[in-house]
Amino acid sequence: MNDTKQQITTRFEAMVIPGSLDPTPLESIEWEKAGFSLKVTPFMGGSIAGEDGVFEPQTVVRTGVLRMPPQASALNYGQALFEGMKARRGVDGKVRLFRVADNARRMASGADRLMLSAPSEELYSKTVVAVVQANIDYVPPLGKGSLYIRPLLVGSGMILAPAPCNETLFVVYVQPVGSYFKGLACIDVKVEDAYQRAASRGTGWVKAAGNYAPCYYPTKKAKADGFADLLFLDHTATYIEEVGSANFAMVKNGTLYVADSPSILKGITRDSVMRVAREKLGLEVVFAPLELDRVLGLGAFAAAGPADEAFCMGTAAVISPIGSLNWKGTSYPFGGGVVGKVTTAIYDVIDGIQTGRLPDVYGWTTVVDLA
Ligand code: PLP
Ligand code: COI
């Protein structure tokens, strides 16, 4: 670990004012009430790439604010993206990460689109592991939550014109979290008909920082009306896109329908759910554009009726069952407000793999060395 007395050896260390953010005292955290609220852990890590796009070796430092010039491209033009991952304590006491290489690859493809330098898979995973190890006490006990991992990629170089800058900052910070929604309990979601999340040929598929703030405004109103979140549609209001922070799926007559679109995030939970549904539960999986009418049992799907189960899925959201969708003021309930069998079975397998309760037949987990 580095502290203020140690010599600064990397550009990343020079950018951080180490120890300038006070960590949340561990003993003050009430795991049951943690939710997805902000906490600060003692250490963070990262690296910087200059004009040549080559990142220096990662360093871990005491958590602190970043020295960022007002001319930084990220601050002016939103040249920034992020990832989201979790470390979980297992039934055997081991701490496991989930699908690290897939997150690294998604960050790299987003970096390409936003013209940022991309950390290699090796740098990405080494930094994530080092930061989790440094904050290991903050991984919640089994069943009480997870350590949320937030890797950022930021255009930190100075520029005036809207064009790619000459410096990319890669930072990883972590913090303990509980449930993003209500755990495995049904949520009510409003189908948004006035606002879109992303343009059809835009950057909705990138985990771009700029995709999120535009959702605050419509989401705030939905939350004030008692909904947990919004479900966005495509520009024709025909097909499901995604929830502001999670992908969408429904179950009908034993088939899992997973909403696809070029303008939504290629969720890693979504991919895991589809593999588990096909390979472990033997379900038919339809991964294609998903009509709102099919979900609600309207129009051409009126005879079939609404979905038997609906849920959204993501790293933060986990598998969150949707009890009802509200479309133009009418509520469409699913499964009588009870969490469905398929939703529960999928949750159980993914949770089992992440906590070591079930064998990781897919090679999805990485055990963090606690020594
Ligand atoms: N869609 C959006 C917009 C998200 O922010 C997320 C969360 O990362 C997801 C979907 C789910 O992706 P993943 O399962 O990789 O976390
Ligand atoms: C995640 O699930 O990791 C996300 O990034 C979604 C949200 C918290 C923005």
In short, what is this structure?
By secondary structure, the protein is of the alpha+beta class.
Q: Can you describe what's shown?
A:
- It is a single chain.
- The protein has helices spanning 11-15, 73-77, 100-114, 121-134, 213-224, 268-280, 292-296, 341-354, and strands at 43-49, 59-62, 80-82, 85-89, 95-98, 146-155, 168-177, 187-191, 229-233, 240-243, 247-252, 255-259, 284-288, 309-314, 318-327, 330-333, 365-368.
- With 371 residues, it is of the alpha+beta class.
- Helix 6 packs across helix 8 (341-354).
- The longest helix has 15 residues, at 100-114.
- The protein is globular.
- The chain starts with 10 loop residues before the first helix and ends with a strand.
- The structure holds pyridoxal-5'-phosphate and 2-OXO-4-methylpentanoic acid.
- Residues 84, 212, 245, 314-316 line the site of 2-OXO-4-methylpentanoic acid.
Query: What's the total count of β strands?
Result: 17
Classification by helices and strands: alpha+beta
| Strand portion | 25-35%
Uncertain parts: none
Can you identify the CATH class of the largest domain? Alpha Beta
The CA-CA distance between the termini, in Å, is: 15 Å
Order of helices and strands: HEEHEEEHHEEEHEEEEHEHEEEHE
Percent of residues in helices: 10-25%
User: Whole-number radius of gyration?
Assistant: 21 Å
CATH topology of the largest domain: D-amino Acid Aminotransferase, Chain A, domain 2
